[in-house]
Protein backbone atom coordinates (compact mmCIF):
# COMPACT_ATOMS: atom_id res chain seq x y z
CA UNK A 1 0.00 0.00 0.00
CA UNK A 2 1.38 3.37 -0.99
CA UNK A 3 0.56 6.45 1.05
CA UNK A 4 -0.04 9.85 -0.59
CA UNK A 5 3.38 10.99 0.62
CA UNK A 6 5.06 7.96 -0.91
CA UNK A 7 3.28 8.42 -4.27
CA UNK A 8 4.43 12.05 -4.35
CA UNK A 9 8.01 11.06 -3.49
CA UNK A 10 8.07 8.38 -6.18
CA UNK A 11 6.65 10.76 -8.79
CA UNK A 12 9.28 13.38 -7.94
CA UNK A 13 12.18 10.95 -8.12
CA UNK A 14 11.19 9.60 -11.54
CA UNK A 15 10.61 13.12 -12.85
CA UNK A 16 14.22 13.90 -11.96
CA UNK A 17 15.48 10.74 -13.56
CA UNK A 18 13.63 11.20 -16.87
CA UNK A 19 16.34 13.43 -18.43
CA UNK A 20 18.94 10.72 -17.65
CA UNK A 21 16.70 7.80 -18.54
CA UNK A 22 19.32 6.26 -20.82
CA UNK A 23 22.01 6.25 -18.12
CA UNK A 24 19.72 4.90 -15.40
CA UNK A 25 18.13 2.27 -17.61
CA UNK A 26 21.31 0.93 -19.17
CA UNK A 27 23.02 0.88 -15.75
CA UNK A 28 20.21 -1.17 -14.21
CA UNK A 29 20.21 -3.59 -17.14
CA UNK A 30 23.99 -4.06 -16.99
CA UNK A 31 23.76 -4.76 -13.28
CA UNK A 32 21.07 -7.35 -13.90
CA UNK A 33 23.10 -9.09 -16.62
CA UNK A 34 26.19 -9.15 -14.35
CA UNK A 35 24.43 -10.48 -11.25
CA UNK A 36 21.83 -12.71 -12.92
CA UNK A 37 23.32 -14.09 -16.14
CA UNK A 38 20.12 -16.05 -16.91
CA UNK A 39 18.42 -12.77 -17.75
CA UNK A 40 20.68 -12.37 -20.78
CA UNK A 41 18.78 -15.14 -22.52
CA UNK A 42 15.98 -12.67 -23.30
CA UNK A 43 18.38 -10.45 -25.22
CA UNK A 44 20.08 -12.81 -27.63
CA UNK A 45 18.77 -10.70 -30.50
CA UNK A 46 20.38 -7.49 -29.23
CA UNK A 47 23.87 -6.18 -28.56
CA UNK A 48 23.85 -5.66 -24.79
CA UNK A 49 27.50 -4.80 -24.31
CA UNK A 50 28.20 -1.72 -22.14
CA UNK A 51 27.52 1.48 -24.06
CA UNK A 52 25.89 -0.23 -27.03
CA UNK A 53 23.10 1.57 -28.86
CA UNK A 54 20.68 -1.29 -28.16
CA UNK A 55 21.41 -1.23 -24.43
CA UNK A 56 20.95 2.53 -24.17
CA UNK A 57 17.74 2.67 -26.16
CA UNK A 58 16.29 -0.31 -24.31
CA UNK A 59 17.26 1.09 -20.92
CA UNK A 60 15.69 4.40 -21.87
CA UNK A 61 12.45 2.70 -22.93
CA UNK A 62 12.14 0.91 -19.59
CA UNK A 63 12.85 3.97 -17.45
CA UNK A 64 10.43 6.13 -19.42
CA UNK A 65 7.71 3.50 -19.00
CA UNK A 66 8.31 3.38 -15.25
CA UNK A 67 8.33 7.19 -15.06
CA UNK A 68 5.05 7.31 -16.96
CA UNK A 69 3.52 4.87 -14.49
CA UNK A 70 4.81 6.97 -11.58
CA UNK A 71 2.94 10.06 -12.81
CA UNK A 72 -0.37 8.57 -11.65
CA UNK A 73 0.14 5.40 -9.67
CA UNK A 74 -3.59 4.89 -9.08
CA UNK A 75 -3.98 4.47 -12.86
CA UNK A 76 -1.25 1.87 -13.34
CA UNK A 77 -3.56 -0.72 -14.91
CA UNK A 78 -4.73 1.81 -17.50
CA UNK A 79 -1.27 3.25 -18.22
CA UNK A 80 0.32 -0.19 -18.57
CA UNK A 81 -2.42 -1.88 -20.62
CA UNK A 82 -0.45 -1.97 -23.89
CA UNK A 83 2.72 -3.13 -22.10
CA UNK A 84 0.71 -5.81 -20.31
CA UNK A 85 -0.32 -7.24 -23.67
CA UNK A 86 3.21 -6.98 -25.03
CA UNK A 87 4.75 -8.86 -22.12
CA UNK A 88 2.03 -11.52 -21.89
CA UNK A 89 1.69 -12.45 -25.54
CA UNK A 90 4.92 -11.45 -27.23
CA UNK A 91 7.83 -11.12 -24.82
CA UNK A 92 6.64 -13.72 -22.32
CA UNK A 93 9.40 -12.87 -19.86
CA UNK A 94 9.08 -15.04 -16.74
CA UNK A 95 7.76 -12.66 -14.07
CA UNK A 96 10.40 -13.69 -11.53
CA UNK A 97 12.79 -11.64 -13.66
CA UNK A 98 10.85 -8.47 -12.89
CA UNK A 99 12.02 -8.83 -9.29
CA UNK A 100 15.63 -9.10 -10.43
CA UNK A 101 15.43 -5.97 -12.57
CA UNK A 102 13.60 -4.13 -9.77
CA UNK A 103 16.39 -4.97 -7.33
CA UNK A 104 19.03 -3.76 -9.78
CA UNK A 105 17.02 -0.61 -10.41
CA UNK A 106 17.12 0.05 -6.65
CA UNK A 107 20.89 -0.46 -6.64
CA UNK A 108 21.23 2.00 -9.55
CA UNK A 109 19.16 4.52 -7.62
CA UNK A 110 21.29 3.99 -4.51
CA UNK A 111 24.48 4.66 -6.50
CA UNK A 112 22.98 7.65 -8.30
CA UNK A 113 21.12 9.30 -5.41
CA UNK A 114 23.54 8.37 -2.59
CA UNK A 115 22.32 9.43 0.83
CA UNK A 116 19.17 10.88 -0.72
CA UNK A 117 18.00 7.31 -1.25
CA UNK A 118 16.85 7.10 2.35
CA UNK A 119 15.27 3.98 3.88
CA UNK A 120 11.84 5.63 3.47
CA UNK A 121 12.46 6.37 -0.22
CA UNK A 122 13.81 2.84 -0.66
CA UNK A 123 10.70 1.30 0.93
CA UNK A 124 8.38 3.43 -1.22
CA UNK A 125 10.32 2.65 -4.40
CA UNK A 126 10.41 -1.10 -3.66
CA UNK A 127 6.64 -1.11 -3.12
CA UNK A 128 6.05 0.84 -6.34
CA UNK A 129 8.26 -1.41 -8.45
CA UNK A 130 6.56 -4.51 -6.97
CA UNK A 131 3.15 -3.08 -7.85
CA UNK A 132 4.42 -2.16 -11.32
CA UNK A 133 5.69 -5.71 -11.90
CA UNK A 134 2.45 -7.21 -10.61
CA UNK A 135 0.35 -5.11 -13.01
CA UNK A 136 2.72 -5.92 -15.87
CA UNK A 137 2.15 -9.66 -15.41
CA UNK A 138 -1.64 -9.44 -15.00
CA UNK A 139 -2.45 -10.65 -18.50
CA UNK A 140 -0.09 -13.63 -18.39
CA UNK A 141 -2.88 -16.04 -17.42
CA UNK B 1 33.63 -25.91 -3.52
CA UNK B 2 33.03 -22.37 -4.69
CA UNK B 3 35.50 -21.02 -7.25
CA UNK B 4 36.45 -17.38 -6.89
CA UNK B 5 38.14 -15.46 -9.67
CA UNK B 6 41.01 -13.13 -8.74
CA UNK B 7 38.73 -10.20 -9.44
CA UNK B 8 35.98 -11.55 -7.16
CA UNK B 9 38.38 -12.29 -4.32
CA UNK B 10 40.04 -8.91 -4.54
CA UNK B 11 36.70 -7.10 -4.83
CA UNK B 12 35.25 -8.70 -1.68
CA UNK B 13 38.40 -8.08 0.35
CA UNK B 14 38.50 -4.51 -0.92
CA UNK B 15 34.89 -3.70 -0.09
CA UNK B 16 35.08 -5.10 3.42
CA UNK B 17 38.36 -3.36 4.14
CA UNK B 18 36.87 0.00 3.18
CA UNK B 19 33.40 0.01 4.74
CA UNK B 20 32.74 1.02 8.34
CA UNK B 21 31.19 -2.02 10.02
CA UNK B 22 29.35 0.18 12.52
CA UNK B 23 27.74 2.38 9.87
CA UNK B 24 27.00 -0.28 7.29
CA UNK B 25 25.76 -2.94 9.71
CA UNK B 26 23.34 -0.59 11.41
CA UNK B 27 22.18 0.96 8.12
CA UNK B 28 21.56 -2.43 6.49
CA UNK B 29 19.64 -3.90 9.41
CA UNK B 30 17.52 -0.78 9.96
CA UNK B 31 16.80 -0.59 6.22
CA UNK B 32 15.66 -4.22 6.30
CA UNK B 33 13.33 -3.55 9.26
CA UNK B 34 11.92 -0.46 7.48
CA UNK B 35 11.58 -1.77 3.93
CA UNK B 36 10.39 -5.25 4.97
CA UNK B 37 8.52 -4.58 8.23
CA UNK B 38 7.57 -8.23 8.73
CA UNK B 39 11.22 -8.93 9.55
CA UNK B 40 10.57 -7.11 12.83
CA UNK B 41 9.00 -10.33 14.10
CA UNK B 42 12.46 -11.53 15.09
CA UNK B 43 13.27 -8.45 17.13
CA UNK B 44 10.48 -8.30 19.70
CA UNK B 45 12.94 -7.46 22.46
CA UNK B 46 14.42 -4.46 20.67
CA UNK B 47 11.92 -1.92 21.98
CA UNK B 48 10.68 0.93 19.79
CA UNK B 49 10.55 -0.08 16.10
CA UNK B 50 7.43 1.95 15.50
CA UNK B 51 8.62 4.03 12.55
CA UNK B 52 11.65 4.68 10.37
CA UNK B 53 13.06 7.35 12.69
CA UNK B 54 12.74 5.08 15.74
CA UNK B 55 14.37 2.16 13.94
CA UNK B 56 17.25 4.24 12.59
CA UNK B 57 18.08 5.58 16.06
CA UNK B 58 17.42 2.39 18.04
CA UNK B 59 20.65 1.46 19.86
CA UNK B 60 19.83 -2.27 19.91
CA UNK B 61 19.46 -2.24 16.12
CA UNK B 62 22.83 -0.51 15.80
CA UNK B 63 24.47 -3.01 18.16
CA UNK B 64 22.99 -5.95 16.29
CA UNK B 65 24.13 -4.49 12.98
CA UNK B 66 27.67 -4.79 14.29
CA UNK B 67 27.09 -8.42 15.29
CA UNK B 68 25.93 -9.21 11.76
CA UNK B 69 28.99 -7.55 10.20
CA UNK B 70 31.28 -9.52 12.53
CA UNK B 71 29.57 -12.65 11.26
CA UNK B 72 30.10 -11.60 7.64
CA UNK B 73 33.74 -10.89 8.34
CA UNK B 74 34.21 -14.57 9.18
CA UNK B 75 33.09 -15.42 5.67
CA UNK B 76 35.33 -12.73 4.17
CA UNK B 77 38.31 -14.23 6.01
CA UNK B 78 37.43 -17.81 4.97
CA UNK B 79 36.14 -17.41 1.45
CA UNK B 80 37.32 -20.86 0.42
CA UNK B 81 35.17 -22.68 2.95
CA UNK B 82 32.27 -20.52 4.05
CA UNK B 83 30.10 -23.61 4.41
CA UNK B 84 32.20 -25.05 7.24
CA UNK B 85 32.86 -21.64 8.78
CA UNK B 86 29.10 -21.06 9.07
CA UNK B 87 28.04 -24.48 10.35
CA UNK B 88 27.37 -23.30 13.90
CA UNK B 89 25.79 -20.04 12.75
CA UNK B 90 23.44 -22.01 10.53
CA UNK B 91 22.41 -24.25 13.42
CA UNK B 92 21.90 -21.15 15.58
CA UNK B 93 19.61 -19.49 13.03
CA UNK B 94 17.59 -22.64 12.40
CA UNK B 95 17.33 -24.21 15.85
CA UNK B 96 17.49 -21.33 18.28
CA UNK B 97 16.51 -18.17 16.40
CA UNK B 98 14.16 -20.00 14.02
CA UNK B 99 14.56 -17.45 11.27
CA UNK B 100 12.86 -18.15 7.92
CA UNK B 101 15.87 -18.38 5.59
CA UNK B 102 14.13 -16.26 2.93
CA UNK B 103 14.88 -13.34 5.25
CA UNK B 104 18.61 -13.77 4.58
CA UNK B 105 18.01 -12.59 1.02
CA UNK B 106 16.07 -9.56 2.21
CA UNK B 107 18.91 -8.48 4.50
CA UNK B 108 21.41 -9.25 1.75
CA UNK B 109 19.56 -7.01 -0.70
CA UNK B 110 19.49 -4.17 1.83
CA UNK B 111 23.20 -4.62 2.50
CA UNK B 112 23.87 -4.44 -1.24
CA UNK B 113 21.92 -1.19 -1.49
CA UNK B 114 23.69 0.35 1.51
CA UNK B 115 27.12 -0.52 0.11
CA UNK B 116 26.02 0.81 -3.29
CA UNK B 117 24.94 4.09 -1.71
CA UNK B 118 28.31 4.43 0.01
CA UNK B 119 30.47 3.49 -2.99
CA UNK B 120 28.45 5.32 -5.66
CA UNK B 121 29.85 4.86 -9.15
CA UNK B 122 32.63 2.64 -7.81
CA UNK B 123 29.99 -0.02 -7.19
CA UNK B 124 30.04 -1.03 -10.84
CA UNK B 125 27.91 -3.85 -12.31
CA UNK B 126 30.96 -6.15 -12.13
CA UNK B 127 31.64 -5.27 -8.50
CA UNK B 128 27.95 -5.80 -7.73
CA UNK B 129 28.12 -9.20 -9.45
CA UNK B 130 31.00 -10.28 -7.21
CA UNK B 131 29.31 -8.92 -4.10
CA UNK B 132 26.05 -10.68 -4.87
CA UNK B 133 27.88 -13.95 -5.58
CA UNK B 134 29.54 -13.65 -2.17
CA UNK B 135 26.17 -13.00 -0.50
CA UNK B 136 24.63 -15.96 -2.35
CA UNK B 137 27.32 -18.26 -0.93
CA UNK B 138 26.83 -16.77 2.54
CA UNK B 139 23.07 -17.32 2.35
CA UNK B 140 23.43 -20.86 1.02
CA UNK B 141 25.85 -21.69 3.86
CA UNK B 142 23.45 -20.24 6.44
CA UNK B 143 20.66 -22.37 5.00
CA UNK B 144 22.73 -25.53 4.99
CA UNK B 145 21.87 -26.86 8.47
CA UNK B 146 18.12 -26.24 8.22
CA UNK B 147 16.04 -29.42 7.99
TrEMBL record, chain A:
Pfam families hit by this protein: Globin
GO biological-process terms attached to the record: hydrogen peroxide catabolic process
Domain of life from the UniProt record: Eukaryota
Annotated Globin domain residues: 1-141
Record's keyword annotation contains Transport: yes
Record key words, sorted: Heme, Iron, Metal-binding, Oxygen transport, Transport
Gene3D superfamilies recorded: Globins
Signal peptide limits: none
GO cellular component: blood microparticle; haptoglobin-hemoglobin complex; hemoglobin complex
Gene Ontology molecular functions: haptoglobin binding; heme binding; metal ion binding; organic acid binding; oxygen binding; oxygen carrier activity; peroxidase activity
PANTHER family: HEMOGLOBIN FAMILY MEMBER, HEMOGLOBIN SUBUNIT ALPHA-D
Similarity annotation: Belongs to the globin family.
Name of the protein described by the UniProt record: Hemoglobin alpha embryonic-4
Organism of this sequence: Poecilia reticulata
Organism lineage: Eukaryota, Metazoa, Chordata, Craniata, Vertebrata
From TrEMBL, chain B:
Sequence ranges assigned to domain Globin in this UniProt record: 3-147
Record flagged with keyword Thylakoid: no
Matching InterPro entries: Globin (IPR000971), Globin-like_sf (IPR009050), Globin/Proto (IPR012292), Hemoglobin_b (IPR002337), Hemoglobin_oxygen_transport (IPR050056)
A single BP term in Gene Ontology: hydrogen peroxide catabolic process
Keywords, comma-separated and alphabetical: Heme, Iron, Metal-binding, Oxygen transport, Transport
GO MF annotations, alphabetized: haptoglobin binding; heme binding; metal ion binding; organic acid binding; oxygen binding; oxygen carrier activity; peroxidase activity
Pfam families: Globin (PF00042)
A Gene Ontology cellular-component term: hemoglobin complex
PANTHER family named among the record's database cross-references: HEMOGLOBIN FAMILY MEMBER, HEMOGLOBIN SUBUNIT EPSILON
Family classification: Belongs to the globin family.
Descriptive protein name: Hemoglobin subunit beta-like
Source species taxonomy: Eukaryota, Metazoa, Chordata, Craniata, Vertebrata
Amino acid sequence: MLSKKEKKLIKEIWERLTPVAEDIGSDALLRMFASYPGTKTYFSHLDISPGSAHLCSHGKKIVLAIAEGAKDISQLTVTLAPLQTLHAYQLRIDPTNFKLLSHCMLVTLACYLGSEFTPVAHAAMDKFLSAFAAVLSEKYR
Amino acid sequence: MVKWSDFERATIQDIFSKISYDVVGSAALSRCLIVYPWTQRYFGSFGNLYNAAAITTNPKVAAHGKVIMAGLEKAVKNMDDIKTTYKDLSVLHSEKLQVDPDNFNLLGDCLTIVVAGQMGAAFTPEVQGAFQKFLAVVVASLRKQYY
